[in-house]
Amino acid sequence: FFARRSSASLRQSATLRKAGVIQICGSGRISCAMTTIALLDAHPDPDRQHYINALCDAYARGAMRGGHDLARINLSDMHFPILRRPGDWKNGPPPGFEAARAAFDAAEHVVIAFPLWLGGMPALLRGFFEQLTAGGFGIAPAADGKGWTQKFKGKSARLIVTMGMPALIYQTIFSSHGVKVLERNILGFAGMGPIRETLIGMVEAKSPLQRQRCLQRVEKLGEAAR
Length: 226
Known about the structure:
By secondary structure, the chain is α/β, with parallel strands linked by helices. It is 38% helix and 19% strand. The model is unreliable at 1-10 and 12-32 (pLDDT under 50).
């Protein structure tokens, strides 16, 4: 479900970054600001003809041009059950989450792109995070039994969200409530930060030119690993 560089390559890149070694970027430019990125394409439809898929493609192109290490996870390729009992979350995820966990664990920056459905993230995306964090990955009860241990500290994130309504209306009238659930109650709770948003409203009504401009903006975000 997933295309990425080898774990050995990721470890080598991380070691070089920590040592301050200059690396050659994908564009041929020289940089010492390489970033390891996990990109989650979270549209549930395996058809992959949606604007979210194109936005993820654009971000990946930018990241490649910027010389960053990027692991892309396609949520639509994954198959897993929905959690039904608290004990299932304590026991860990079903088979098939090893690669996604490795990508999140290695990432310095996490990008999650999804369409807004019923005011929030699609059910499959919520199910993904329920399984991803099962068994203490990302967040776990503290050793002394008081509070939680945040295991995603030091990782930044960006949410790229498309919607039918104007983005300004979603932000002001609805206070971005559905996006805040993911931002505050899942990612932030696990220690990620800062968490930035790219909200793209009126997506069905946009002209081809407007869509292209959004793709260019997201591609620049990928190049900057933002």
